[in-house]
Amino acid sequence: MVQYILGIEGSANKLGVGIISSNGDVLSNVRDTFISPPGQGFLPNETAAHHRKVVLQVTQQALEQAGLKPCQITAIAFTKGPGMGGPLLAGAMAARTFALLWHIPLIGVNHCIAHIEMGRLVTQAADPVVLYVSGGNTQVIAYVLLHF
Q1: Are 35 and 76 in contact (CB under 8 A)?
Q2: What's the rounded Cα separation, in Å, for the pair 17 and 99?
Q3: I want to staple 31 with a disulfide (CB 3.0 to 4.6 A). Which of 16, 24, 60, 86 is the partner?
Q4: pLDDT, tens only, 75-119
Q5: Is pLDDT of 145 > 70?
Q6: In this structure, are strands 75-81 and 137-142 parallel, antiparallel, or unpaired?
Q7: Cβ-contact 130, 116 below 8 angstroms
Q8: Residue 77 CA, distance from chain mean position
Q9: Which of 92, 97, 63 is nearest to 79 (CA)?
Q10: Alpha-carbon distance 86 to 61, whole Å?
Q11: From CA 23, how far away is CA 88, in angstroms rounded?
Q12: Using CA atoms, how far apart are residues 12 and 92, in angstroms rounded to an integer?
């Protein structure tokens, strides 16, 4: 039976909601970006307010694009860090709310590991070594998946 995970990413100025199947198919990937006034950059509180304002609309669009209803979603994943505190909290609150309303599990995801896993999905690399550079967060990450 195919399962569906709805993911919410809101670690910075972009709020994204995507749905992926257990087969690895990306069924939707909807985003809405907070644009700050010219020359200012984006502040955590304003960015979080943006995420709270658009999360329902973006989630509805993701469900429509995927052709799914909430009752078909198996779990909710959300970015738990690293990232900006306010935007992360906005995404986490939305994810927790959906998980409670839809009576499905909630999965916190490390933002860096998620990038690695997306790359593994696309490249089929078994045990990648990754240079992760994102704003103030730079890491060299390597891990080996244990196959039992």
Answers
A1: no
A2: 14
A3: 16
A4: 999 999 988 999 999 999 999 999 999 999 999 999 888 878 877
A5: no
A6: unpaired
A7: yes
A8: 7
A9: 92
A10: 23
A11: 28
A12: 13
